[in-house]
Amino acid sequence: MSADAKKVALITGANKGIGLETARQLGKLDVTILVGARDLAKGEAAVAELKKDGVDARAIKIDVDNPADYAAVAKTIEKDFGRLDILINNAGIMIDNRKGNETSTTSPEMLRKTFDTNFFAVVGLTQALLPLLRKSEAGRIVNLSSILGSLTLHATPGSFIYDAKTFAYDTSKVALNSFTVHLAHELKGTKIKVNSAHPGWVKTDMGGEGAQLEIEDGAKTSVELATLPEDGPTGGYFHMGKALPW
Questions:
Q1: For burial by CB atoms within 10 Å, which of 45, 96, 137, 229 has the most?
Q2: Within 13 A of 135's CA, how many CA atoms are on the CB side?
Q3: What CATH number corresponds to the domain at position 137?
């Protein structure tokens, strides 16, 4: 395969954690990786690490909370590659206290900040890059959600997330899942597939104490959805190949 025929993937928040491991695993599948990072120096450091593993990677500055970056990123990808094959909306935040259910005291500021990064930024960046994804022979959009975005499990007494109520984070992922469903429906007549991924409870800064999965496993769902075959699903919500309840 010629260099210009390699698939091109943009991963936001790819300088550490699940994003970096996703970049490593996709890169080993001969995909050119654009390491999206708010801090370009941290992105360059991640690229240096990836190149030691033989990954074709380059850093690209993108602060998902700065809409001005979206057009700049789109312009760079257009100029250098002419298309985008894979978009993994990996960047996200959790700023809830995690001290039990504090829904009634969650501030509007916390909700807005969480939604700005976890929902509005994903929608805005995806819309900006959609023209480039339409030029791909097999465009794939992966939205990093969470099992905590499952209203079904939240409302089911006895489910393993029933008592895990982080209101701002959870509702931002519910909204993100809705975006997945709506965009997948709009694009169902195209070659683009859109899916939500639950990586698992992963040992990262966000995962915190008690997390069960290694980062290597946490990246697997994103990689699988980024490389779906033509007959693969779209508009779904998955973890390790299994559909999750909305």
A1: 96
A2: 13
A3: 3.40.50.720
